[in-house]
Give the backbone structure.
Amino acid sequence: MGNMGDYDYLIIGNSAGAVGCIEGLRSMDKNGTVALVAEEEHHVYSRALIPYYLGGQITRNKMYYRPRDFYDRARVSVIKERRAVKIHSAVRMVELDNGSRLGYGKLLLATGGKPVYPPISGLDKQQNVFSFHSMKDVLGIERELPAVRSAVVLGGGVIGLMAAEVLHKRGLDVHVLELADRLLAPVVDETTSHLVEGALQKAGVTLYLNNTIDQVHGTQRVESVTLKDGRSIPCDLLIVGVGVAPRVELAQGTGIEVNRGIVVDKNMQTAVPGIYACGDCASTYNFVTGAGQNLPLWPNAYLGGRIAGFNMAGMERAFVQGTAMNAMHFFDINIINAGINVTGAETPDGLDVIQEYNKDTQTYRKFILSEKGHIKGFILVGQIARAGIFLNLMRRKTDVRAFIKDLFKTDFGYADLPETLRWKLLQDDVILGVV
Amino acid sequence: MGRIKAKPEVCMGCHLCEVWCAVAHSKSKHIIKAFLYEEEKPLPRLVVEEKLPLTFALQCRHCAEPDCVTACISGALSKDPETGRVLHNPNQCVGCYSCVLTCPYGSIFINPRKREVIKCDLCAGLDTLYCVSHCPNGALVYEDC
Ligand SMILES: Cc1cc2nc3c(=O)[nH]c(=O)nc-3n(C[C@H](O)[C@H](O)[C@H](O)COP(=O)(O)OP(=O)(O)OC[C@H]3O[C@@H](n4cnc5c(N)ncnc54)[C@H](O)[C@@H]3O)c2cc1C
Ligand code: SF4
Ligand code: SF4
């Protein structure tokens, strides 16, 4: 196969990061040629909608993240069902799995992540084992569902619990296995974990903490699993949701630095000129910790891509809005958290933790503050209205000590801020003194 | 493209902007019928912030680079490049609340009746901005910017 053409901009991947890049790029450069390589066959869809689709809340059509004519209108040549396999950075060329080559001026890697399968023998060879990550999983799970009575979900993190809730709503017997001693361990603190555990148990989901699969039984299909503690669970569907690893294959052998994710600077550029990365495959700047980190979340992927797009088109912009941030709900519990998460009794040096738990209303608020009174992290459970105000205070490194008690007010808002700060944050949005 | 600005020094805290916002988003557009007879009571898409004696109304800023649109996992939120309005399509929304997490002004409101959010659409399809035109004291103004 020969050369398929040269493009000013080439994007690998077809998800949040890619769309963010295209929209950023096209707002700056209307004429440059753009191509996108997508290994999946589907029009751009939101994998974050998988639980909503399988739960029956939305139709397949609504999984598409942009209208059908999006790429045409953005004048992007989409090369579908092809995988990019190698970057020849010296000659600015990308090779595809069929041997054809694409030249680029600027290249974006938005390759996302790949579900991790733990090394349990027999796990990945069975027909009724899926991760909860792609359209392929969705179609596979859907095919199995009519005959499934009992499902095992391996992993009590965000994805595993979303899967558990959906399967429970579909009328299955659901068993969640978690290696740690609590659910959502790296994401939220103990109090929040226990509230979520309570909600799942109340709904009738069976939890197995400190536990994992020791043995998988069945040859073509999993029929049951034996746990580390010897118990056995019959199962006709097994969902693996233990995590996602950044897809960094393309960066290998190019001089691009990889530190779990593809390392980029604040402009989203890798160490190799002209090559950018964003989203789940990248290691990006976390404004709370100041470190480069994998921040595999939708807003970070979209915005990182958008900012990469601006930079690729020649407008310098920095991605300094990213941090860990989740809006989650499990059964009747709503949770929003962002920034660093302090768990356990020990509070790291220089940080202060304030929290308030109301047993009657099942609401919980926790803030992690620096010595200077800057919010470094927060968790809201039950009461999440206007949560973005806290994220904004965090982004703007606002000293909150003067109104610290008000942070717990259920209707906390801009009125609760000190006068000068309030008008500064609302800037020209509020007119003062012109009666 | 403009936005609605508040003048706190003349705001009486009467909450009529909230009431009229709800009316603007009702079926009948009639202040009595909307609340008495409509199947779903209409909800306001702005909030009067209060720390007495201070009161002022705050609604969506229709940001140039809206964080809510960035965060939306379903494509329900979008910025209309022609009008500058940041619009929410309830048919696409799944109620994940990512936009609630990211809007710096707390201007995305949770619909307590279903997994969905509501926000200011600058009275799309109507001929006046209800909060502005019904404020008895002129504490809300629409400014081009
Ligand atoms: C079930 C589920 C629920 C989620 N819910 C939320 C949520 O509520 N909120 C939130 O913030 N985040 C959520 N996430 C995370 C969010 O979906 C991801 O952060 C986001 O999808 C990352 O986007 P991305 O563009 O980096 O890559 P991805 O979405 O991972 O897409 C990468 C694409 O690139 C393609 N690709 C990779 N390598 C190549 C190659 N070499 N050649 C061609 N194509 C290639 C892949 O096939 C894939 O289509 C959820 C994830 C899952 C799985
Ligand atoms: S809802 Fe919030 S983030 Fe979105 S445009 Fe309005 S003010 Fe900006
Ligand atoms: S709640 Fe609706 S509008 Fe808001 S981010 Fe989620 S899907 Fe988008």
Remarks:
- The longest strand of chain A covers residues 3-12.
- Chain A touches chain B through 46 residues (CB under 8 Å).
- The mean pLDDT of chain A is 95.
- Chain A has three domains: 3-114+245-312, 118-242, 332-432.
